[in-house]
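RETRY 2/3 - previous attempt timed out on the joint model. Re-submitting the same 641-residue input unchanged.
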Amino acid sequence: MKVLLVEDEAELAQAIIEFLKKEGFVCEHASTFLAADEKLELYSYDCVLLDLNLPGGNGLDLLRKLKALNSRAGVIILSAKNAIDDKIAGLDLGADDYLSKPFHLAELNARIKSVLRRKQFDGQQLIRFEELTINPEEQEVRVVNQVLTLTKKEYDLLLFFLSNRNRLLTKESIAEHLWGDDMDLADSFDFIYTHIKNMRKKIVEAGGKDYVKTVYGMGYKFSSL
Amino acid sequence: MKLLTKTTLLSLLISLGVFSLGAVLFYKQLKYIMNEETEEMLLLKREQIKSFVAQHKRIPRQEVGNENLNVKRSSGFKRPEFKDTLMFSSTEEEMLPYHQHAFSLKLENSWYRIRVSQSIFEQDDLVETIRNAFVAIAVLFIVLYLTITFLFTRVTWKTFFRTIRRIKNYNAEQDGTLHFEKSSTKEFQDLNLAIEDMTGKIQLEMKNLKMFTENAAHELQTPLAILQSKTENLMQDTSLNENQLAQVNALQQSLSRLKKIVQALLLLTKIENHQFVSRNKVDIRQLLDEKLKSVLELADMKDIAVSSRLEPCAVTLHEDLAEIVLSNLLNNALKYTPPKGEIEVVLTQNQLEIRNTGPALLGSEKDIFKRFHKDQTDSDSTGLGLSIVQSILQEFGHVIEYRYEGGKHVFGIRFK
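RETRY 2/3 succeeded.
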């Protein structure tokens, strides 16, 4: 999957690119409006990560250009402003998602994968991991052939793990993913721990294996045994 | 008292004063002149009588029906005097006022007291008429003057009243710079220009503040984003030993804390710069309903009982800010209620109360809404949650209070 990162902060761009490469994406970078404009003109991407605060122009104009080119790329807006106007404008213009800085890379990862699923396969693609099969459109999880009944939070959690497999996920990033702005609620009481515990239990009871590893004091990792 | 009333009353008082004084003086003057004239005539008559007596050596005969002359013998000389008296007038057949002069006259060793009189009732009538006319003119003048002044002033001051109304209704976020029509009155024109100037400055200030908070947000959040991403990547390095991993974890924790504080401060700044404008009324009951669903889930895990009684309630607020208020208060309730405790939420048309069981505060109740105040050191808490709640509510005119009652923390919001 080809991703274009449009971001002017060099250090941040470097961190994101390092991460995307690890996740197996082919990654390109543009740090100015003109450079991004050119790249979009010449190449096609599966996903564009767009910072709105660019030197030389407004990121929203790039978005307009993408739409004018009838691009099938998924667009995720990254912005430091957290300004509601920007958010509404971006989504109105056809962006697929909006993330405000600072964000967890794990969250970005989950969002990219979600957008790709929607854009590329119209949500049809099944996610497979070992004996687990997930149908995102139906929000259905199977262990081999048995359907699991998971709560919404447990489902979201599993999907998050699967999108970020083999990555150490902090409690914060999980909490933010599950509860968004209410994350304060969750990370104080090991609510996460309970949700994870329940999720693991259900998978194991259905015959699956427990792929969640607790990294003491830090967080969790979902990986093959 | 209204300006118009004040000026009208003043004009009225002065007019009345001037006219009253004038009337009195005029009346007195008139009477004095008339009096002088009468007395001169009486003195003239005296001289006439004296010449007659000197010439004819006898007292003039008192004609019948002529009450103007009255002669009586007297014992001796008495001083001459003037007086007013009532006498019967044969012509008018009633008692009328006369001015009378009495003097003593000697004729062949006999003293006589002679009284000459002049009727003054015609004069009195005249003075009456003049006086009435004067009063009528005065009243007419006052009424006309006041009415005209009143109407004229109202027209002239219309610009001013309009300006006042516009200032009263001025909403800095929505109205932009105020512009006024040109006024023919210099002072009002000056006033309007000054206000245009001032609102222009306010708009500029607001724009600058907005830009400042946006820039601050960007400048603060970019390094935070860099820290977050790099720390997260570092965490993935499998070559780190346990100690190094623990360090990275500590970094991540502090970073999370910092992120929360920056977020909270930026929000507070925006609120206090009035950057949130209420668009419509917010349905608090619906919001609470939704929030309570997640609260219930989490309360269950902590073995806390949650009860709620919600009535319809819609208030002036900003949708996102209302969410923040409710989240903060409910989160606090969940956080500070010990296991097996209770949380109660009661919502009425204009009041919301959230109660939770728990130990009393260590510190003072009045500090609870202060920025960065934490009752107990807790690295998870920014100490800004309640400040934000209070700022938000104050911005829209609502009031929040805290009390500890019956073993429960109670937060009460009274909506405007």
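The mean pLDDT of chain A is 87. Closing ticket.
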